[in-house]
Amino acid sequence: MTEQNQDIDKLQQQRQDKLAKIKQLSIDPYGSRLDDIESASAVRAKFDSTRQDQTALCAGRIVLFRDIGKLIFITLRDSSGTIQLGLSRKLLESQWDLIKLLDLGDVIGAEGTLGLTKTGELTIWTTKVIMLSKCVLQPPEKFHGLADIELRYRQRYVDLWANPEVMDRFKKRIAMVATIRNFLQAKGFFEVETPMMQSLAGGAAAKPFITHHNALDIDLYLRIAPELFLKRLLVGGMEKVFEVNRNFRNEGLSPRHNPEFTMMEIYQAYADYNIMMDLSEEMICLLVEKHCEGTTLQYGEMRIDYSRPWRRASYRDLVKEYAGCDIQDIAAIRSKAKSLGIEEAKLDDDIVVNEVFEATVEKNLINPTFVIDYPARLCPLTKRSKTNPDYAERFELYIGAMEVANAYTELNDPQVQYDNFVSQIKGSNEDENTFRNLDEDFINALKYGMPPAGGLGVGIDRLVMLLTGATSIKDVILFPLLKPEK
RNA sequence: GAGGGCGUAGCUCAGCUGGUAGAGCAACGGCCUUUUAAGCCGUUGGUCCUGGGUUCGAGUCCCAGCGCCCUCACCA
Q: CA A148 – C1' B8 distance (Å)?
C-alpha cells in the first residue's frame, strides 16, 4: 500500500503521475549505482576548448529547466557547482518520452560530449540521460531559493541545494576542520576520542543534560567538556593530544549558542599558555590564509583584521582601558559596576570584576585579542603565575567581540586542584543549578603526576562563523536544535 | 524565562483606516534547436499558523495557544 491519500496536493499528484509514467516506460525512477561520475567543477576544469572529442558523465539535481521545444537546457547541480546539459531531440529521440517527464528537482545523470554554446556556456551535449531519483515535491522558487529561515533549518536537505551559498559555507567548514586536523597531526598531536557520556560532568561550569543507562541502571551526563579526560591522557603518557567533538550544555539558545556545539581541545605536555597562544594564532591565521579572501574579513558591521601579530593585553590593563578602573581597587570596581546597572551587592569581588569586564571590555575586542592573566579565583583549573599568584596563567581569545578560545597553563598539583574543587563546590549555590562535582579519579590521576602542560579550547562553530561571515551559529551547524513542530 | 517582531498559493512576496484573496516563479495546455531567473499566449492553484471573541462583515481589530527571528538573562 502507498501512503498516498486524498490530502496529497495537486502539484504532488502531478509528479506522482509522472513517476507512474516513468515506471510504464520500464525505467526505475529511483535509479541505481552509477560509476565514473565527474563533478561539475572537475568537468569545467578539464574542458579544453580546442578539442571536440571530450566526453563527460555528471550526476546531480535539476535546478533550472529551459525547454525550447526540440532543445532543452538543464542546469544540473552537484556539491561542486553547476553544469549545463544540452538535450537535443535529434540526439535523444529514443529517450524523449522520459525527458518530457523530467521535473525541476529530479536527480539525473547525463553523459555526452563537451562543447560551448553560442554564448560560450560549457555544455554537456547529452547522448544519454539516466534517471536516478524522482523528486515528488515541488522545489523552492528557482531565483530566491528557500528564504524562510525556519524551513531552511528544518529542511536543510532542501536548503543545501536550493541555496548554493549554504553548501559553500558548509564545504568551508569541512575544509577548515580538515586543515586543523592536518595542522595538528603534522605537529605530532594524537587525535583522540574521550567519553561523551560521563558519570560526572566536569571540566567546566555548566548545566549538563542527563540521560540514563538501563543495563547499569545509572544516570549519565552528556559531557560539558572533555578536559578532565584529555588530561588523564597526559598522565597516561600521551604528550600531545587533541579532540574535536561535541559538548552539550543545558542552556538557552541564542545566535551564538546551540545546546550541542563543537569544541576542540588541545593539550601539550611540557608547554604553557604562551605556547598555546602562539599555536592558536598560527592555526587560525593558517585557516584565514587557506580558506578566506585576504586578511581583513567583514563580519556583520565589523571589519576584522587577522594580520599578525595579534594584540596581547592583560585582563587588568583592559579593564583599566575600557572601564577606567583598577581591578585591585574593589571600591572603584563596585561603583563602576553599580553605574553599569550590575547588582553587585550580593556578588563576590572577583565576580563583580568579571561582570565589569564583560560589560565594558568584551564589545571592544574586534580584532583578534588575547586577554591574558585572569584573576586566579576565576580559574580553578589553571596554574597561578609564579611572579604574581593573584593571577592565573590563562588567556581567552576574543575575535569580533566573541570569545572563541580559552587556554591555560594547566594546574598539575593534585593538592591545589583538590582544594580548588572543594572551594568551588562550597561556592556554588542551589538556584544556580550548575552541577559541580568532585572528580576524585581525576585527582587520583594527578597524584601519579601530570606533566606541566598547556591546554587550549577552541569553539569551532564560532570560529567558522567568523571566518565565513555567519552571524548566527545556526548557519554553521547543519542541523541546529529547533523545537519539534506541533 | 522576559520584552519586541513575524506567520497569506508548492516557493518568494503584496494586501491602506475592517467590505468577501493578488503578483512573480513553479505547475498544466500550446508555440519555439543555442537558452542563462529563456521568451510569448492561455489555464489552474488558498483551513490567510491554530482556537476563541468583537462586528452586518475579520487576512486586517481583541484574547489565548503554537512556531520562527531579534534583544536580554544563563553560558562558549
A: 14
Which residues make Cβ contacts (< 8 Å) with residue A222, sequence separation at least 6? Answer: A196, A197, A198, A201, A208, A209, A210, A211, A248
Cis peptide before A195 (omega within 30 of 0): no
Measure the CA–CA gap between A232 and A132, rounded to whole angstroms. Answer: 50
Q: Provide ipTM, 2 decimals.
A: 0.92
Q: What is the tens place of the pLDDT at every residue in A51-85?
A: 999 999 999 999 999 999 999 999 999 999 999 99
- Report how far residue A354's alpha carbon sits from residue A388's, in angstroms, rounded to the nearest whole number: 19
Please, are residues A290 and A181 in contact by the beta-carbon 8 Å criterion? no
Domains defined along chain A, listed by start: 10-139 (2.40.50.140), 162-310+367-475 (3.30.930.10)
Q: Within 7 A of a protein CB, which nucleotides of strand B?
A: 1, 10-13, 24-28, 31-39, 44-45, 66-76
What pLDDT is stored for residue A430 in this prediction?
45
Q: Is the CB of A428 under 7 A from strand B?
A: no
Question: Is the model's pLDDT at A288 over the cut of 80?
Answer: yes
Closest CA-bearing residue to C1' of B1: A252
The protein residue nearest B71 (Cα–C1') is A254
Q: Which of residues 284-343 of A touch strand B (CB under 7 A)?
A: none
- For residue A403, CA distances in Å to A227, A257, A419 come to 18, 12, 28
Find the Å distance, CA of residue A290 to C1' of nucleotide B54. Answer: 63
Instruction: Say yes or no: Cβ of A217 under 7 A from any atom of strand B.
Output: no
**Quick check: A182 pLDDT over 50?**
yes
- Which residues in chain A, range 76-95, keep a C-beta under 7 Å from any nucleic strand B atom? 84, 86, 88-90
Tell me which of A25-29, A248-252, A261-265 is least confident: A248-252
Greatest C-alpha distance within chain A: 88
Asked if the Cβ of residue A257 lies within 7 A of any atom of strand B, the reply is: yes
Nine-digit cell at A336? 563602576
